[in-house]
Amino acid sequence: MYRNLYILVAGALVLVSLFFLFFNGSARGRADFVWVNGTEPETLDTCFMTGQPEGDIAFTIFEGLTTYHPETLEPTPGVASDWKQEGLVYTFTLRPDAWWVKGDEIFQVNGRPRRVTADDFIYAWMRQTLPETGSQYSFLLDYIDGIEEFKSTTAEHWTKLLKDRAAKKLPPVARLHELGLDQRKEGEEFRRRLWEEKVGVRAVSELVLEVRLKSFVPYFLQVVNFYPLFPVPREAIEEHGDQWTLPQNMVTNGAYVLDDWRFNSYIRLRKNKHYWETEKHVSARLAELGAMKELPRRMEIERDLLARLGSFEKRGLARLDAL
């Protein structure tokens, strides 16, 4: 009897679950592309990501300095429209039309549309190296001149701040912004000054980022397209803290935006209508490249890709679902 009852209850639960999933999928409409992501992402904050389930989402909603050719995986322009290498120094020129986007609108700060700037990369890379962050991928930045010294010195400084706090019998803290106002300002100023003095990364201007390596790294252009080195929006993080990756708070710069996130069910991504790869951009870029007599290899790759695939604005899929 009890066995039969158990079977009936289990069967009813399965039917209810299937009905719920069917209704849920119907209500949100069919996506243009669906994939099984494997498991629930642990986070959508690129500073704390470590796995493929998170990374697959990150590559759709964020964009680094470079991106991958879809067939050869060679580096092609991303946020950086152009770059040059002189010895150990890379100089990246960023796009003036690469925007931070929140929902359907360009993110605004003090009433002005917010571009992705060189300082956004500096903020993201510094955040990766901070001792209280504990990023498992911070070693990728060790290719950069001065980063290792910055990491060790900030770790010593952070330990001192915590010891001073303990000596005053104050409760422990996990982040710099949880300290008192004076200590927080002192810590931020110390880190900013140390970065400027020691680290080979600087904003030449709002849209020019200079990176100095400590030794030759032939695959550095691929490294900057890994999600730990993607830019992040400082204002959104400072306003919302750990909640900045919720759909209602999230600000991103990739080809897609976060539309919906149902725990242990799905993540819906929606086409970013403000993404820089528009029809106008593609036609203008093809004309520009066509007028040049000799093209570097990376520009040949870009030209062929744009000519064959067209613009994301026209050809990009409208909705994606990660199950």
Task: Tell me briefly what this model is.
With 323 residues, the protein is an alpha+beta fold. It is 40% helix and 18% strand. Residues 1-10 and 14-23 have low confidence and may be disordered.
What does this structure look like?
By secondary structure, the protein is of the alpha+beta class. Helices cover 40% and strands 18% of the residues. The chain has helices spanning 2-28, 52-61, 118-129, 147-167, 181-198, 220-223, 234-240, 279-290, 297-309, 312-315; strands spanning 33-35, 66-68, 75-77, 80-86, 89-94, 101-102, 105-106, 108-109, 112-113, 201-205, 208-212, 256-262, 266-271, 319-322. The strands form five sheets. The protein has a four-stranded mixed sheet, covered by helices on one side. Strand 4 (80-86) and strand 5 (89-94) form a beta hairpin. 25% of the residues are buried.
3D shape: globular
Report the major sheet: 4 strands, mixed
Question: Uncertain regions: pLDDT < 50 for 5+ in a row?
Answer: 1-10, 14-23
Question: Counting H and I runs of at least 4 residues, what is the number of helices?
Answer: 10
Q: Which H/E pattern describes the elements? A: HEHEEEEEEEEHHHEEHHEEHHHE
Instruction: Please count the beta strands (DSSP E, at least 2 residues each).
Output: 14
Fold topology:
Elements: H1 2-28, E1 33-35, H2 52-61, E2 66-68, E3 75-77, E4 80-86, E5 89-94, E6 101-102, E7 105-106, E8 108-109, E9 112-113, H3 118-129, H4 147-167, H5 181-198, E10 201-205, E11 208-212, H6 220-223, H7 234-240, E12 256-262, E13 266-271, H8 279-290, H9 297-309, H10 312-315, E14 319-322
Parallel strand pairs: 1-14
Antiparallel strand pairs: 2-3, 4-5, 5-11, 6-7, 8-9, 10-11, 12-13, 13-14
